[in-house]
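In this supplementary section we document a worked example of the pipeline. Step one takes a protein sequence of length 132 as its only input; no multiple sequence alignment statistics are reported here. Step two produces a three-dimensional model, which step three serialises into structure tokens for compact storage. The input and output of this example are shown verbatim.
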Amino acid sequence: MKSRRIALAILTAFCSAGAIAQTASSASDAMPGMNMERHAPKPTDVSSTAAYQAADQKMMSGMSGIEYTGDADRDFVAHMIPHHQGAVEMAKVELKYGKDAKLRKLAKDIVAAQDKEIAFMKQWLEQHPRKQ
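The serialised model returned by step three reads:
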């Protein structure tokens, strides 16, 4: 039964990886230098790999769904929010699956710092409405 669940998890991860790789290839075309190629996960890291891939996909779709306004400050903040949220999501994956104490502390620090920066950027956007 356990081997059956592992096989199902691996199959699910492979299917998800293919869909994410397809999406990521179009994202990497739009963002030169970003290597979004996905590799099949090893059976021992299926859960963490799937979680990282989901965080990557969420971040990339969040960034690509934002229109540029021509206002450098507003565009910077609007695109950095999902980027920072992606960092928080990845840090949470490390906290859930990671074993290294120093990396877990780094992940905790990232969550705290990025949450604070996200709050600042959201407040900035509210205080600086888009000019028509």
